[in-house]
Amino acid sequence: MIEGGSEMYRVEDTMLRIARNAGIEDPRVFATPTCVFMSLDGGDLSQMKQIRDRNINLELVDRVNNLSRKFAAKKINLQELRQQIIQVANAPSFPMWMQVVGAAVLSATLMVLFLDDYDWIDFPGAALVGAVGFWAYCEFKKYTKIRFLSELVAAMVMGLLAIGLNYLDHEMIIDHILIGALMTLVPGLALTNALRDLFMGDLLSGIVRMFEAALSALALGGGVGLVLKFVGA
Questions:
Q1: Can you tell me the distance from the alpha carbon of 138 to that of 34, in angstroms, rounded to the nearest whole number?
Q2: Do 143 and 111 fall within a single domain?
Q3: Are strands 47-50 and 28-31 parallel, antiparallel or unpaired?
Q4: What residues contact residue 75 under an 8 Å CB cut-off, 6+ apart?
Q5: What is the pLDDT of residues 5-56, one digit of tens each?
Q6: Contacts for 42 with CB less than 8 Å, ≥ 6 apart
Q7: What one GO molecular function would you report for this record (predicted)?
């Protein structure tokens, strides 16, 4: 669930629900965005699981949450729950072409949503820049473990493409195109989950996630700013 972008209180609630319905009398759980700690029956020994990869996959979060509720309702046993959770974790995500098309549609529609003085010629420009930038983000992320570097590179790609489109057709406005395209990578859900963690009392997770969202936004802005500074409009 953490790998899918879930809030920490939901992770802890799900783990406690599973443990209690499995006959554990006093389970204790502490979850952060990078690791999970759990002890059983109030014992002194605890187990830690490190979280190395985190994305946004709300379908995964929903399916695991539903499985825990089915287990609580005695519709499946513990072994079936384990097998189905493994299946959910290994289930393939949407194909890349579908994600790229979704990024294109999202970029174009959000440009229209956020701007009042847009021109329809910016519509395909935002779609193209958003799609290519999102593809660059996903591809670069496969080859590096450095956090926020993929956002920086994707933003630079978007900036270069927007400048190129403006060079080909001066009626295309760089600012309009970038406003729509960058929305595909803006960490809105991460910021929302950070606030929810803070409101639920998970101060450590909330602060960490908020700082992480701020760094992602800074990388996006920095990538575009570098291109506009050194390449020019």
A1: 21
A2: yes
A3: unpaired
A4: none
A5: 888 888 888 898 888 888 888 888 988 888 899 988 766 778 888 888 888 8
A6: 25, 26, 28
A7: transmembrane transporter activity
The number of distinct structural domains making up the chain is 2
Structure tokens that stand for 164 in this block:
């190129």
Q: Which two tokens stand for residue 27?
A: 């389970």
158 is written with which tokens?
């978007």
Domain boundary among 90, 116, 143: 90
Specify whether 146 is located in the same domain as 34: no
Separation CA 104–CA 122 (nearest Å) = 12
- Cα separation, 142 vs 161, in Å, equals 22
Dihedral sign of CA atoms 214, 201, 34, 76 in order: negative
pLDDT of residue 233: 54
Q: From CA 191, how far away is CA 7, in angstroms rounded?
A: 11
Instruction: Please report, as a single letter, which amino acid is at residue 160.
Output: L
Do 77 and 189 lie in a common domain?
no
- Domain of 187, in residue numbers: 96-230
Instruction: Examine the fold and report which residue of 34, 60, 90 is the final residue of a domain before the chain moves on.
Output: 90
List of residues 6+ apart from 32 with CB closer than 8 A: 8, 204, 205, 208
Assigned domain for 219 exists: yes
C-beta neighbour count of 222 within 10 angstroms: 16
Label residue 108 exposed, middle or buried (CB < 10 Å: 0-12, 13-18, 19+). buried
Same domain, 135 and 50: no
Residue 181 domain-assigned (yes or no): yes
pLDDT in tens, 105-144: 999 998 888 877 777 888 899 999 999 999 999 999 888 8
Residue 163 lies in a domain: yes
Q: Is residue 200 part of a domain?
A: yes
